[in-house]
Please model this.
Amino acid sequence: MSKKVTIRDIARELDVSISTVSKALRNMKEIGPETTQKIQAFAKLMNYKPNSIAISLKNRKTKNIGVIIPEIVHHFFSTVVKGVEELAEERGYNVIVCLSDESFSKEVVNMELLANGSIDGFIVAVAKETMKVKDYHHFYEVIDQGMPLVMFDRVVENVLCDKVVVDDLMGAYYAVNHLLETGCRRIAILTTVDYINVGKMRTDGYLKALAENDIPVVEELILKIEDIDNCEEEIQKLFENQTFDAVFSVNELFAVLGMRNAIRQGRKIPEDISFIAFTDSILSKSVTPALSTVTQHAVQIGRIAAQMLINRLDDEISSDGFSTQIVKTSIIERETTKSTKISTFK
Amino acid sequence: MSKKVTIRDIARELDVSISTVSKALRNMKEIGPETTQKIQAFAKLMNYKPNSIAISLKNRKTKNIGVIIPEIVHHFFSTVVKGVEELAEERGYNVIVCLSDESFSKEVVNMELLANGSIDGFIVAVAKETMKVKDYHHFYEVIDQGMPLVMFDRVVENVLCDKVVVDDLMGAYYAVNHLLETGCRRIAILTTVDYINVGKMRTDGYLKALAENDIPVVEELILKIEDIDNCEEEIQKLFENQTFDAVFSVNELFAVLGMRNAIRQGRKIPEDISFIAFTDSILSKSVTPALSTVTQHAVQIGRIAAQMLINRLDDEISSDGFSTQIVKTSIIERETTKSTKISTFK
DNA sequence: AAACACTAGAAAACCGTTTTCGTGTGGATA
DNA sequence: TATCCACACGAAAACGGTTTTCTAGTGTTT
Model:
């Protein structure tokens, strides 16, 4: 086991001073070419790598960015992380991922842990519990210490920082409009409880689309699911007790579970009943029939968030003027919605 | 914006030495009770948090563990990370996640980056490309520097380190046996090319099960998929050109895509054709009919890997005696395989 | 020959904390 | 009263680098 070689080791071996080594490694003209040559060659030979801890301590910069997400086994969040990772790598930053597990206390602990020198800035999607208890002191503290913070998707209105959000309302609006355009009239919605920001926004988009098309809102067709583990029963009940010709779902899972009910009832998709859902992952692509979706460009969101953070870090921009980027969604038509063209031709 | 307060600030304010502050904060009996009292109270007031970088520098420990996985938008890998995170948190460690993107060079770069002081040890699933080019120098270097390394799932035989692997061969064996027991005789396999360790192992398990039951191996029923992006066509061709009454797949995706072909051909699942696949994520649970799977206990794998690493880190065990933990799989029977009971009753 | 410019390298400061090794005060002991 | 020992605290080194300042030596210019 060969220990890590330090600048000091090189200096000793080559019988020069450590400052000479330091300068030579950074190609300073102050050091003669052949000395520089020799030192660099030896350093490479010894497989020397500067200790990043020492450098971090000296420059008070870690070149690490901390990402805190509620869940990692989650297509949207992991895809955002991928985007963050991509851009961070391009700009020479590392990514440290921590999970809040949707818990307020874990979010606080993780932030405090990372804030003490491990990272230069945060990218966060706020935990459900935090949104519920509305306690944002950990965000304020971090900002107060001069550490940049970027929120994405699950954002808090009152916290002053850069934000990246999905255009959930309009995404839902267009999705429901698409159902309307293809001839659907009684549209059920599978959504979440209102304290989940994105669920609320998507529900509002659904309502807006109905309103603009003079379709009456039927309360019985609005299913707000609290507990994701028991969603299957709730969805089944909806299918048993109500009739409708389309389903708009705020996520893939609810939609696919809905499709199961439709299939078992012997209904044809999309002829008898159409489906469209937020989130575009393997699930949508691989189920049969393939699910039409509203894609949120998660990689893009990650990249933008990382961009905002690193710009602030590198340019040392003063803290005034925070911006909120809104990322538009797009609809991917697959097999669970009728073609707009065909319905026009009819 | 209030700057971070250091131990030095406290010393200056209270007009004592920095060593006194350091000791008082750590409750050393060397310091008088009322001084300790005063210093701790003031530190709390100032919201003092020790700088972890400095501590890392001092004790040459970061309390961080680095996880390198090929993909994050991947159910198995992200679930393993969740397991690692869980256990790391219990033991007071942070997790730094880096992605190799299945690329050899990114794997090397990321390891070098993290190895320079950012972390105390590694948990790695080897990238496809690395397995292909068989260049493992970065693993040897890290081990040589005395940094513990734990490999999981995608492991390299020759690298001496702790390992956690799925019992892929037996998992596949039992899965195929299950198909056999429920009356299937012509069983197709959807697998990957042989340089992917787990694909190879699962194929071997398939072969073993057939051999032990005196079922002839039909080469045409073995589909080795290289490029995951074009797998749909390849699978379709198999369904068009061959007949079989069951499919064993090394992952969920291939199976679900296979099911699509069966459904379109109007075949009944599982009566006409059965399906069973490795990996148990939302996909299996939510497709219709729900897919029977071989679950790999990914959280468990993550926990074990983290356990092995942290034990070595905390106990400072000498580097001899590496172990390989084999995690058994289990079969989850859902709707794509016939019930064993029923076939017995028949 | 004196003044000057340049190059190379030695030495020290610095980052925030822990740790080792004093040092001075006071009370107890001889 | 002189010696010893706790006790409470402080000075300084260490961790591993970077950076700055200072010194010494060489060669060129006038």
Q: What stands out?
A: The two ends of chain A are 76 Å apart (CA to CA). Residues 298-315 of chain A form the longest helix (18 residues). Residues 342-346 of chain A have pLDDT under 50 and may be disordered. The first strand of chain A starts at residue 64 and ends at 69.
